[in-house]
Fold this sequence. Notes:
Blueprint: E1 2-3, H1 24-34, H2 47-55, H3 60-69, H4 71-82, E2 104-107, E3 112-116, E4 124-128, H5 134-147
Antiparallel strand pairs: 1-4, 2-3, 3-4
Amino acid sequence: RGACTSKEGNIFFLQQVADFGNACGTIACLHAISNSREWLALEEGAALEDFVRAEMQSSPEERGRALLRAGALRASSESAASSAAAQTRCPDRDGPPLDHHFAAFARSREGRLIELDGTKRAPVDHGPTSAATFLADVASAVKRQFMDVEPDSLDFSLLALTRLTE
């Protein structure tokens, strides 16, 4: 387990800058989708696709700052978080720090299991993975790095972004 550079494995990583506020869910979704573009085709001209292409050569901090200026993405984030379909009360962007956090895991093109947490300085490499073992590898990393650290905590959930196969 160790830090990797944001360009390693063509991983798209951005840092959550303080000015964006309580938006770790948005950052996690952005990380999950932007690092699934190889098999999850985004429409040409889609706000996220345009953002990733425009910021591909930027540093993680520059990407975080650019997200502040990406009006369509920020508006989508705020709309989704405050919609009636949201199951919890939407925290204020400028509110106090939260007790809960969202991060994402992705598989790099080189077959590495990468943790993407916008509050960290860089992505974290958890070792080798494959398409066939990805979910099991994520579960193992989560158990080892999170659940084993706080075994009595039940404030935990996982969500998978997967491709539908027939």
